[in-house]
Design a protein that fits this description.
Layout: H1 2-23, H2 28-56, H3 58-64, E1 70-71, H4 96-99, E2 102-103, H5 110-126, H6 128-140, H7 154-161, H8 164-183, H9 189-207, H10 219-225, H11 230-257, H12 268-275
Antiparallel strand pairs: 1-2
Helix pairs in contact: 2-3, 2-5, 5-6, 8-9, 10-11, 11-12
């Protein structure tokens, strides 16, 4: 899958370069950027070829590179006293005579490998040139709202603060940040449990900003009525019905989640229709 995707990506990059050469003036800076993008794309592909096996089989890959999977020596000052002192007075593996070999910890945390893989895949999917242009655009004006021409100010912030969708998406970001922190194994057991509970509470809070989204689909009825082709008109009506049912079912599920309605209010058949 990765090979096929990279092959397609290479074709897309070639097509984009052809379009740029046909529409933009040829300058030295454009050529340098194209060469830099090609080199960075190649570097990311090579990095992924190492990172992906590190995600699935980290120990086997590191052992092949000469890494020792176990630690066993008697370097601790309390070694050779017939008592196992690993994990207490001695670090793991430094009292091998009494405790035996210990499994060595990975030199790179698994979460760091996963994050690096996801970032590399995201950059390759967007395109190195596109990411570079986004970075240069963001660097030119830090006060500009990403992907828009609007600049941050009182009016824009007020619009964001009074938008249910912005609040819901903000809570979604917070929910997954909390969930990532809970599963990162970087914190104590107590703090990890607290992060999980906060993530669940944030998920419930999000639902209150998503109520009655089905109302917007009434506006789509006029689009369906104006469609001249009969088949397309029927398909549009079906789309409106499906979206209406899905959003309405989500409202009912939210009411079930917070305990206002009993579980199983909607039939299994209707839920399958909503999911479809």
């Amino acid at each position: 899958t990765v090979g096929a995707g990279l092959n397609q990506l290479d074709s897309m990059i070639g097509e984009m370069y052809d379009i740029k050469r046909a529409t933009l003036p040829t300058t030295r800076s454009v050529g340098h950027r194209s060469a830099a993008s090609f080199l960075l794309t190649s570097a990311l592909v090579l990095a992924l070829s190492v990172l992906l096996p590190m995600v699935t089989h980290p120990r086997e890959l590191l052992e092949a590179a000469g890494w020792q999977p176990s630690v066993c020596d008697d370097s601790c000052v309390h070694a050779n006293d017939s008592a196992c002192d690993d994990g207490g007075a001695c670090r793991d593996g430094s009292d091998c005579g009494a405790c035996g070999a210990r499994e060595a910890s990975l030199p790179v945390p698994s979460w760091a490998v996963i994050v690096a893989s996801l970032v590399s895949i995201a950059v390759l999917s967007l395109g190195v040139s596109t990411v570079g242009e986004m970075a240069r655009s963001a660097g030119g004006s830090w006060g500009r709202v990403p992907l828009t021409d609007a600049t941050l100010g009182t009016a824009v912030l007020n619009k964001f603060a009074n938008s249910a969708q912005v609040r819901e998406k903000g809570l979604k970001v917070l929910q997954y940040v909390l969930k990532a922190g809970a599963y990162s194994r970087l914190f104590s057991a107590g703090l990890t449990k607290q992060l999980k509970d906060l993530s669940k509470a944030t998920s419930t809070a999000r639902r209150f900003f998503k109520f009655c989204r089905w109302v917007k689909h009434f506006e789509d009825l006029s689009e369906a009525r104006d469609q001249s082709d009969r088949v397309m008109r029927l398909l549009l009506y079906f789309r409106v019905a499906a979206n209406f049912g899905a959003d309405w079912a989500e409202d009912v599920c939210s009411l079930e989640r917070v305990g206002i309605l009993p579980a199983g209010t909607l039939s299994v058949e209707f839920m399958l229709f909503a999911e479809y």
